[in-house]
Amino acid sequence: MKKALVAALLIIAAVPLLLAMAELPPHGSPDNVTYTHVSAYYLEHGVEEAGAENIVTDVILNYRGFDTNGEVTVIFTALAAVLAVLLLGRTSSESADKPAYPVSAVVRFIVRLLAPFIAMFAIYVILNGHLTPGGGFQGGTILGALAIALTLVLGEDEARRLLPEGPKPWLQAAAPLTFVCIGIAGLADVGSYLGFPTAEGLEWVRTIWLMLIEIGIGVGGAAIIATIFWTMEAER
Questions:
Q1: Using CA atoms, how far apart are residues 70 and 67, in angstroms rounded to an integer?
Q2: What is the spatial distance between Cα 220 and Cα 197, in angstroms, rounded to a whole number?
Q3: Is there a contact between 129 and 214 (Cβ–Cβ < 8 Å)?
Q4: CA–CA gap between residue 146 and residue 156 (Å, rounded)
Q5: Residue 133 region by backbone torsions, left for phi larger than 0, else alpha for psi between -120 and 50, else beta
Q6: Model confidence over 43-93: pLDDT tens digits?
């Protein structure tokens, strides 16, 4: 009886979805509204309305801002879930001592030499995401990878100094928090959540808001990547 009920519910849920899919235009069709209206509109008005010369940034952080807001929230939620799973069952009696693995002097020298340049490149990618390919996701990934590389050559204790314990929770949640702050600012200014000011002469405001979101995504992404790696490292 239960199996029949579940099958019936699945069919009921599937029918409207299949009907909606049947109404969609063929994939790749030149008559698809995406090609005839949406893409053309973004290319024509994106820079003026969204505040970034990089159309991809305009779409991700402005036109499709709700979706990206959800994405960064999911990433932060994933961090919480991973930490809950990894820390569940850990006892205080577990030794914090880890076996020492020798690190090549050449590798240590190269990583320490390149670390400042990698960090500067990551910052450049984050801050210029509204102008060139890049942005918070890409720059945050670079910073997170740098934290992992430094952990491997310097040790976890030294690397963890890059992410102080006090502000760490705020840094991990930087992306969704930044989105919420910008969203509320838009609500107060134009009456809609994540609404960007559209008045002439306020292009610089839109650009600053986009940069703040990029910084939040970059900082939050790097903190999450590093935290997950350090937690998994502690489980070895």
A1: 5
A2: 25
A3: yes
A4: 13
A5: beta
A6: 888 888 888 888 999 899 888 899 999 999 999 998 888 888 877 756 554
* 195 secondary structure, DSSP code: P
Range 131-134 contact pairs with CB under 8 angstroms and sequence separation of 24 or more = 131/52, 131/53, 131/54, 132/54, 133/54, 133/56
**Planar angle of CA 115, 121, 122, nearest 5 degrees:** 90
* Residues 107-161: tens digit of each pLDDT: 889 999 999 999 999 999 999 988 888 899 999 999 999 999 999 888 888 888 8
CB 42 within 8 A of CB 63: yes
Q: Which two tokens stand for residue 161?
A: 């100094």
Ramachandran region of residue 11, left (φ > 0), alpha (ψ -120 to 50) or beta? Answer: alpha
Q: Give the pLDDT score at 90.
A: 60
| Structure-block tokens of residue 152 | 């491997």
62-74-42 Cα angle (round to 5): 20
User: Residues of 193-221 as b/e, b for ≥16 C-beta within 10 angstroms?
Assistant: bbbbbeeeeebeebbebbbbbbbbbbbbb
Residue 101 pLDDT: 63
What is the model's pLDDT at position 96? 46
- Residue 155 Ramachandran class (φ > 0 left, ψ -120 to 50 alpha, else beta): left
Q: Give, in order, the Cα–Cα distances in Å from 38 to each of 31, 55, 180, 201, 220.
A: 12, 13, 26, 25, 31
Contact 136, 60 (CB under 8 A): no
What's the pTM? Answer: 0.78
